[in-house]
Amino acid sequence: MSDTNLSPSNIPAAEALVGQLHSLLETEFEQLKSGEVEQLDELQNRKSLLLEQLGQLAPGHAVVDAPLPEAWKPFAEKARACRLLHQRNEILVSRKLDAVRGALTALQVSAEGLIDETYDRKGRLSWGAGRRRTPQNAYQDV
Question: How far is CA 81 from CA 18, 76, 86, 91, 115, in A?
């Protein structure tokens, strides 16, 4: 990484981009929270473009402990805030995926149980091939 990329003349553009990224991450969170996922693809494309532009204006340090020029510190704080927002959104997505997986598992288990459960002509629940559920055999299939 060259220090010319960290030129103070890049700061206004970098701060504008990180501000846009911050707003986009907030919008993404609200859409995820409310279940409005129709526009998430567009947001992801915009986020990728912003990150690419930021990478050109303010590339990351090759050495993590390298000192950051003083003029870039406000930008770095905004970038850290964006990273936290991204992590928050990632946690929300993970929780929603877990909930969907749980619901799918419950539906699969329920569907498997329905295969053996049928009703006879009188509306009584019967199990398997004509076997009725009685207190003696109620839990044999479980």
Answer: 10, 9, 9, 15, 52
